[in-house]
Structure formats: C-alpha cells, structure tokens
Amino acid sequence: MSCITDPPRRVPWYVRIILALQRRHYGRELEPTRLWARSPRAFLAMALMYGALDRARSPIEARLRSLAQVRISQINWCLFCVDLNGAAGLKRGVAPEQLAALERFEDSPVFSEREKAALAYAETVTRSDRRTDEVLFERLRRHFDDDAIVEFTALVAYQNLSSKFNAALGVAPQGFCSACATPQASPAPQPADAPLPGDAAAPSRSARLRDDPA
After folding, report:
1. By residue range, what is the domain housing residue 32?
2. Which one of 27, 147, 171, 188 is at 20 to 30 Å from 38 when CA atoms are compared?
3. What is the pLDDT of residues 140-166, one digit of tens each?
4. How far lies 78's CA from each of 11, 170, 182, 190, in Å?
5. How many domains does the chain divide into?
6. Burial group, residue 187, by CB count within 10 angstroms (0-12, 13-18, 19+)
7. DSSP characters for 104-133?
8. 94 and 161 share a domain?
9. Model confidence pLDDT, tens digit, residues 166-211
10. Cα–Cα distance between 154 and 172 in angstroms, integer?
C-alpha cells in the first residue's frame, strides 16, 4: 500500500479510535493514517486543522472544497487523495462530469465562474512555477470576500501538505472513486531564464473525510 510496509510499534489511543472509526465507515483502515501513526502528534494536529477547515459553516461550500482538493492532488500525483476526495465530492454534490473534466476546468462548461476562479487560485498556489498576482486576486474577489480567501488558502496549503506526504510515500488509491480521471503527465519545465508569471515582461498566468485528513 506504500513504501513503508512495517506497522508502527506503538499506536496512541486516539489513533486507535480513528482507525476503528475508519474500519466501521470504510470497511478498512486508511493507509495514510497507518503512516501518520508513526508521528501521532503531527497527525492529531493535522486532523484538528482539517476539522477546522472542513466544517459546515465554512464560507467555501463543501463541493467546491472537494473539487479543489482533487485538483491539488492531481497536480501532486497523489492518487490516494484523488480517490478519497473524489468519492467525498460525489457525496457532496460534485457531478461526475466535473471530476472527469477537472484538469481542463478553465475551458469546460460544467464549472461556474466561481468554481473556475477558486480552482485557478488553487492551481497557481500549488504549482511551483507560478505565483499569485493582482489579476488573480481581482478574479477571486468577484466571488469571495477576504475571510473566505484566507480560509481557502489554508485549505489549499493543507491539501498540498497531505497530498505531497502521501505521494512521496507511494500511497496507492483504495478504490473509493471510479469517476476520477488519472492525472496526466506534467508539462515540461520552463527554461531557467523564462519569466515567471506576474513578471512585467510576461503576461500573467492566473489562467476527506473528517476522520482522516487526506
């Protein structure tokens, strides 16, 4: 299931409770939890942070949060996160057509302008060859106030941490979502002297469940 195959020697009581809840909910334990059990305090902090972001009264609707999490996971090649967050998104009202078209969201009619703005921001923050600029923030502010932007940025940062952790350790999908598209090959890196997005010399390129953060 991952590059780390040996079980942790000791598992704190609160991680055992989470594993038991996963067995009841999914019929199995989730591999990232088994890995995070080796660093239980960090895992507890992660779970608490995700619980604070993935709440019913969030200014970012649940289906949009899931769309962003899947897109970030695609970019970071975390097939487990695509799988689990895709399944969560379907339960939250994400259409299968949206999951299938997520990598080309800018040109797809199945996304609203609000969704496209949020996904463009999530993608820009996630990709190391891009950076945010005023054009992108102007686009965001047509749909979100400052509090929502800050909270959405925290969710994007969280999902980057989680998906990079899982991808680095080779966590495989566990068969939750058949509607999610497999991430396509990443574009070739730009030359070292190429202007970054937002530079004056180049046009701007602004173009999970609660019991287990994934």
Report:
1. 9-53
2. 27
3. 999 999 999 999 999 999 999 999 999
4. 25, 8, 10, 23
5. 2
6. exposed
7. GGGG-TTS-HHHHHHHHHHHHHH-TT----
8. yes
9. 999 999 999 998 776 556 544 444 444 444 333 333 333 333 333 4
10. 25
